[in-house]
Amino acid sequence: MNENEVNELVERGEMLPLMEEFYTIQGEGFHKGTAAYFIRVGGCDVGCHWCDVKESWNPKLHPPTAVDTIVENALKSSKTIVVTGGEPLTWNMEPLTSALKSKGAKIHIETSGAYPLSGTWDWICLSPKKIKLPTEEIYEKAHELKVIIFNKHDFIFAEEQAAKVNSNCILYLQPEWSNREKMMPLIVEYVMNNPQWKVSLQTHKYLNIP
Q1: Could you tell me which of 40, 39, 42 has the C-alpha nearest to residue 80?
Q2: With CB atoms 3.0 to 4.6 Å apart as the test, which of 16, 112, 150, 172 could cross-link to 176 if both were Cys?
């Protein structure tokens, strides 16, 4: 297969720049503590300065991989699948989610929402970023809103985002890992004063697992 053919398949979402895939415990948000198979797709131009997976940004660093291969590998370990990135909605997610759904998988996505929603999802974790705001559509469909707190202004941003999501969306504040010791007391105080919010922690990092 030549480069043009590969690029065309990637454009259609029939191949994806696969950074890594692994079976582990979901560490964040509503499903924390749940065993799940993670599919990390390369490619993101949102560019958060505190991103802990910057190697995911350039999709050219990650081999275009056929969706059928990704699905086959995933279902060997779990029927609960988490698609993350990078920013997975950079790509057309319909072929991947259709293939997983046909095999009875439950599919979650972790996304900034900066690109149009594609694919069929059982759970949408929306983690918006100031640099590139979500589309209006995903606010209506998100199951959880997870705002990363790096500084005090992020509480204002969190409330702005919470005002846009649907009424059933669960609200989480999560400290940015490198600044957690400084921000965690502020988050605890904020949630106690604003109990519509919950605290999310990156428990997988405390457990020292992927």
Answers
A1: 39
A2: 150
> Which CATH number covers residue 65?
3.20.20.70
Burial 70-104 (b: 16+ CB within 10 A, else e): bbeebbebbebbbbbbbbbbbbbbebbbebbbeee
Q: Based on the structure, what is the number of domains in the chain? A: 1
Q: Pick out the residues of the known binding site for [4Fe-4S] cluster.
A: 44, 48, 51
- pTM of this prediction? 0.94
Q: Each residue of 7-42: pLDDT tens digit?
A: 999 999 999 999 999 999 999 999 999 999 999 999
Instruction: For the chain, give the percent of residues with pLDDT over 90.
Output: 87
Range(s) of the domain holding residue 17: 3-207
Residue 190: what pLDDT?
98
Binding-site residue numbers are 25-27, 40, 44, 48, 50-52, 84, 86, 127-129, 210
Q: Report CA 115 to chain centroid distance, whole Å.
A: 13
Q: How far apart are CA 27 and CA 41, in angstroms?
A: 18
